[in-house]
Amino acid sequence: MTERKTTTAAAGAERAKGPRPFAAFEWMIAGRYLRSRRREAFISVIAGFSFVGIMLGVATLIIVMAVMNGFRSELLTKILGINGHMLVQPIDQPLTDYDAVAARLEGVSGVVAAMPFVEGQAMVSGPAGNFGALVRGLWEADIRRLPLVAGNVRAGSLDGFDEGGGVAIGTRMAQQLGLAVGDNVTIISPRGAVTPMGVTPRLKSYPILAVFEIGMSEYDSTILFMPLEEAQVYFRMEGKATGVEVYVEDPDKVGAMRASVEDGAARPAFVTDWRQRNVTFFSALEVERNVMFLILTLIVVVAALNIISGLTMLVKDKGRDIAILRTMGATRGAVMRVFVITGASIGIVGTLAGFLLGLVVCLNIESIRQFISWLTRTQLFDPTLYFLSRMPADMDSGETVMVLAMAMGLSLLATLYPAWRAARLDPVEALRYE
């Protein structure tokens, strides 16, 4: 008898406490509210718009951030693959001991390569026209240590570059000049010989030994490589170099290596790194990336507001059902959890769908671009404007997780107020006029 009373008391206490949080019946009711009936079609339409808004907002954020990351990564790779991570230039006296300086710099810990070079601006001329170019003189061995150049020769060869007396140009420069391997390109420098009639420009023709394609239109159309000794003769810098380009193992640590590189040069030198030379460009990219993130986040916020409006209308429509549940013993917490599950389901499923959509688009971004260009018969991604010949997309795992967490968090927060209103509903008032 005593045991029966104890069991009855325990059961009563359990009923008084109510069902455990997120019980099966709460999920069942939430699922029922998500499935529309003809009378509730308008509410389901709002829920559908909320789902689509969350999905498109998350997908757009992921795609745009991936494309921005891809732009930065590709541009950084191309810029650092040609210009070097650090630049050592002479102070007070010309750089005549460039080979010795380069050898000493290559002995510095963390330095991969040191390349002496001669550089100058000139005009290149061909049958199809003429325009400005950056002429850079390098040893053949050093050019072969530039994978973006040596690994992307589209025509001709770099073999015997030092003794060939010719030059290597980019594909876009060759197209614009109307030249090919074996043709002669004329290089014109305004700093020519001084005569009684004034300064006459210096003109000289060189055979084209190789045509390369870096993949960055700015470089493929403006850079011309020639042998170091030939460049010294052309720019009247016999026995001298413009500077030494230094390539390091980790480009992000150039600041910490500045002192060791200055010591390794063992002569008065002015050292700059890639961040100083491109600070404006990469700062503009970073600002644009942050602003795009803030603007596109508003899409997710608007979708979350749609969840609030949809749930608010659902609470008003289900007032009688809520009152009946309360009279049957459902606690305020249970009612609140039902509507939290209803709204959060829209947000979470929409977020995951947006992630899958963004992933598919990022993995096929170039094919999609080509298809849209073919469909609209327009050049959707002009390399002359965007510097790169293909559209890149680089998804960052940490950034993607942050976007997903933000979308899910906003979706969950959007459910709290309507769910709280539902839990505060008075059963007596709701059933008074029924």
TrEMBL record:
Family annotation (InterPro entries): ABC3_permease_C, Lipoprotein-release_system, LolCE_TM, MacB_PCD
Compartments, record wording: Cell membrane
Any single biological process term in GO: lipoprotein transport
Species, as recorded: Polymorphum gilvum (strain LMG 25793 / CGMCC 1.9160 / SL003B-26A1)
Pfam name, any one: MacB_PCD
Recorded topology in the membrane: Multi-pass membrane protein
Protein name listed in UniProt: ABC transporter, permease protein
Keywords associated with the record: Cell membrane, Membrane, Transmembrane, Transmembrane helix, Transport
Gene Ontology cellular component list: plasma membrane protein complex
Positions of transmembrane segments: 41-68, 291-315, 335-359, 401-420
